[in-house]
Write a sequence for this structure.
């Protein structure tokens, strides 16, 4: 998240804001816009991941839930990739572009012919006769599509880069009851984010997302390909997420997690209540044992109140299933088989 917000913080500081609400297509109520809150994967522990991945002792009651910890770490990582870019896009649209024509709106850091009153107004550090001295390089952002339902943001470093790199492409079909002033928009759409456009040009990973929001729930499907979402190794991940207006939700995914420092492929399915209590299960690999199935319930603080493992020979279990929240006792999320995911283009839910 930091790379994108830092970049656009610089753009915001250096841009000449002469118009508080520029006439940019995505600022108009009838035009498409996807805010971060529209597609955020809200989870029971927004403040953190509960202490990280831990090696478990046999007594598991009263310690942070392993399933919940792995779930929150993955959802927080996805949110970090989304938030930096989408919040930056929102900031960008509040600034007057340095130039525009019938189809393109361009914002530029260290742009030529930028007006100034002193040296501090210029990223080059030199103001001459009311104009910033030119610099050897500049960073530009561009909205390159004004189609009714689609949009595209492009990014370029010049002269290092000879052309714009597509940062974010998307589409949004508004629902009839969509409120353009709300942070959570209603309707359906897609986002395709180039994860290396700003962070590291050598990265080829992509985040593809499809969503549908209505008055009852938000549903988001995410496919991430060839990207180090957790740790340093690039891998693929697939998420299917749903949140109800009550705050409760559910998720199933294939990604990375586990016990100890090694992050291996895991398959997770979980459900939680608006109060934060939840239940989930995970398939993972355990050295010397093979595939391990872990099932847990946790309280509002994220602490395990019941746990069961298969095979039982490793003895990591305890408590009673009756300790699960009453609304969760009849629910039993079942994770998919632990098969290496093949991210592609997710379906709109």
């Amino acid at each position: 998240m930091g790379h994108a917000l830092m970049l656009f913080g610089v753009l915001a500081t250096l841009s000449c804001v002469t118009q508080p609400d520029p006439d940019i297509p995505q600022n108009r109520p009838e035009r498409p816009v996807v805010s971060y809150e529209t597609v955020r994967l809200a989870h029971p522990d927004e403040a953190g991941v509960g202490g990280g991945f831990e090696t478990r002792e046999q007594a598991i009651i009263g310690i942070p839930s392993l399933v919940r910890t792995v779930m929150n770490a993955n959802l927080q990582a996805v949110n970090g990739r989304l938030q930096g870019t989408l919040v930056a896009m929102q900031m960008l649209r509040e600034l007057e572009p340095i130039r525009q024509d019938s189809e393109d709106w361009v914002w530029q850091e260290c742009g030529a012919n930028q007006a100034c009153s002193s040296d501090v107004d210029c990223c080059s550090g030199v103001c001459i006769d009311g104009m910033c001295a030119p610099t050897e390089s500049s960073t530009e952002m561009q909205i390159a599509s004004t189609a009714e339902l689609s949009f595209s943001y492009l990014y370029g470093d010049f002269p290092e880069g000879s052309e714009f790199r597509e940062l974010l492409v998307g589409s949004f079909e508004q629902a009839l009851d969509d409120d353009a002033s709300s942070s959570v928009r209603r309707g359906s759409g897609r986002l395709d984010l180039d994860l290396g456009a700003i962070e590291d040009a050598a990265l080829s990973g992509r985040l593809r997302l499809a969503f549908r929001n209505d008055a009852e729930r938000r549903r988001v499907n995410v496919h991430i390909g060839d990207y180090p979402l957790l740790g340093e190794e690039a891998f693929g991940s697939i998420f299917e997420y749903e949140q109800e207006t009550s705050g409760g939700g559910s998720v199933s995914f294939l990604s990375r997690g586990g016990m100890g420092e090694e992050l291996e492929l895991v398959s997770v399915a979980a459900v939680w209540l608006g109060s934060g209590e939840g239940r989930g299960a995970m398939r993972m690999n355990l050295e010397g044992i093979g595939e391990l199935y872990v099932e847990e319930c946790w309280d509002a603080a994220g602490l395990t109140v019941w746990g069961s493992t298969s095979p039982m020979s490793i003895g990591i279990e305890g408590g009673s299933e009756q300790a699960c929240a009453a609304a969760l006792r009849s629910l039993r999320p079942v994770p998919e088989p632990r098969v290496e995911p093949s991210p592609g283009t997710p379906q709109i839910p």
About this structure: The longest strand covers residues 217-227. The first helix runs from residue 2 to 14.
